[in-house]
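Minutes, project huddle
Topic: does the predicted pose make sense with 1,3-dihydroxyacetonephosphate bound?
PN asked that the exact inputs be recorded in the minutes so nobody has to dig through chat later. Recorded below.
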Amino acid sequence: MPDRRPLIGGNWKMNTTRESAEALATAVVKGLAADVAETCDVALFPPFPYLQVVRQCVGSAPVQVGGQDVSGHEEGAFTGQTSARMLLDLGCTMTLVGHSERRHGLNESDEVLNRKVRMALASGLDVMLCVGETLEEREAGHSEQVVAKQVSAGLEGVTKADLERLSIAYEPVWAIGTGRTAAPEDAQSMHARIRADLENQYDARSATSVRIVYGGSVKPANADSILAQPDVDGGLIGGASLDAGGFLDIVRAAASVEAS
Ligand code: 13P
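Predicted holo structure (tokens), as shared on screen:
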């Protein structure tokens, strides 16, 4: 992989309790071997109420903690929203933006998501922009156009310099939480397409540097073949990240692909 460290993120979604979040984060930190952490970046995305407790469990370990979402506004009368500044205040370094459960479940538009991306980057957070087509879009043969539009609209106004703090998660909606994963070659071809589009929108150097991770039913049993693809730079793990042992197996798989 050309100069791209793999990144494995655990998106806990709306799962865990205070106690189980603490136990899960502690188990991840304890089980993360130093040599693996040297090769692979690890990030945890707990629910907002447990960010602080997870951040405390992580301490100085090489594990980033991030929000599952962030507001596109700086501060003010935005009931229920969480600002980038608040995430930074808690010691978070990253945020997800545009997860399909927000795009489709909460109707967040490309414009809203672009605002979030720009606000988070301007505030100093790293961003993982999630994109992916639905089953209907895939069956209609529109996957590539849909994803290309989500990427270009999501990144509108993002400078080359800020792009260095952004990664993309390709998560086909039909593969999320369904047990169906994209075939490794299909993931590879979509990732390569996203990279080619980034080259058009930016330049070859920037496109080569951006990490593009895959998400959608990644488990220890299928991680190796997906992570081995040359344009797959890691994974965003949902269900399997709720088990520290399985999550760490996926982290190790990413580190060993990188080392090989
Ligand atoms: P699953 O791994 O549970 O399919 O979820 C993927 C995902 O949505 C990660 O953000």
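Observations noted during the meeting:
- The two ends are 10 Å apart (CA to CA).
- The chain has 13 helices and eight strands.
No decisions taken; revisit at the next huddle.
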